Amino acid sequence: MDSTRIPVIFDTDPGIDDALALALLASHPRFDLLAVTSAFGNASVDITTRNAQGLAALYRKDIPVARGAEGPLRDERRREHATHVHGDDGIGGLSAQLPAPTRPLDPRPADQLLCDLVNERPGEITLVAVGPFTNLALALQRDPSIAAKVKGVIVMGGAFGLRGHGGNVSPVAEANIMADPEAADRVFTAPWPVTIVGLDVTQEAIMREADLAKLQGRGDGAGDLLWQATRHYQRFYDERDGIGGIYAHDASAAAILLVPEAFTLRRGPVRVVLEGIATGQTIQDWRNEHGSGTAWSGHPAQQVCVEVDAPRVLALFDEIF
Ligand code: BDR
Ligand code: CA
């Protein structure tokens, strides 16, 4: 085993920024991508699973892909998919251009594949999750012992109100959390080390049009497809925020494994608001000034990203393909 490489499983709802994250995870030489698990979110799970398979083939990774949750833990949470952001097919209308899968879908549900792989290599695997966290919550339910066996869990999700970054589906809630708040709360309160890469930092990591254009002509067609798919995604963000590019949401969760020094972390238990107008809000108790008996007391301290050196993150795209 090459100890300099980072073994990861990618749990995802592709999704255009998911596709960029997968480009890093599949193509950067420091990653050893073991499997991809799909979830509903940016589109239905049928669509995101096909995209996950097609993207794995595009990046020439002949690895297991397993289908995951089709909806949240509590069915009444079911919301519209984010097709207005990522296109009806999740990839900005380009999914037909993805290559055919190189192997059939793994027969196991995503949460079982996650448990199996973690149990095969205790202490080694990092989970990188960038969709609703339903598969992770189901994996914990299936086999709670995996919490002690993963090396770490990195999630893209949440918003902590820093530097004016509120939620993106409500004034306080981020999309991956809002899609399944119960799952997110279970994942953040489980006894495993979670690092939360939320909108506070991902909305600072803007890939401008010129950065995205540099992908063209690289990666045997992969870079061209990413460039075209991000045209759709950029239109959405240009209209909403006028940023002249896209937020590298999901890629930031992969990046923290490669350049941890680019991120500043804050430690403390994190809970998710489950009812009322603030449903989906993520709140960290980082001051620990309120004694025992709060909703945060007794839960593990997790790490929340509070600052990012964005150029350092974006430069990683020069290291692939
Ligand atoms: C998150 O929501 C999804 O639309 C993106 O892929 C990302 O994971 C950003 O809030
Ligand atoms: Ca995503």
Question: Could you characterize what this model shows?
Answer:
This protein is of the alpha/beta class and 321 residues long. It has one domain: Ribonucleoside hydrolase-like (Inosine-uridine Nucleoside N-ribohydrolase, Chain A, Alpha-Beta Complex), CATH 3.90.245. It is 33% helix and 17% strand. It contains 12 helices and 12 strands. An 8-stranded mixed β-sheet has the order 3-2-1-4-5-6-12-9, with helices on both faces. A two-stranded antiparallel sheet has the order 7-8. Strand 2 (31-38), helix 2 and strand 3 (65-66) form a beta-alpha-beta unit. Helix 1 (16-27) runs antiparallel to helix 10 and helix 5 (134-142) crosses helix 7. It is globular, with a radius of gyration of 18 Å. 52% of the residues are buried. The model has no long low-confidence stretch (mean pLDDT 96). Bound molecules: beta-D-ribofuranose and calcium ion. The site of calcium ion has 9 residues, from loops.
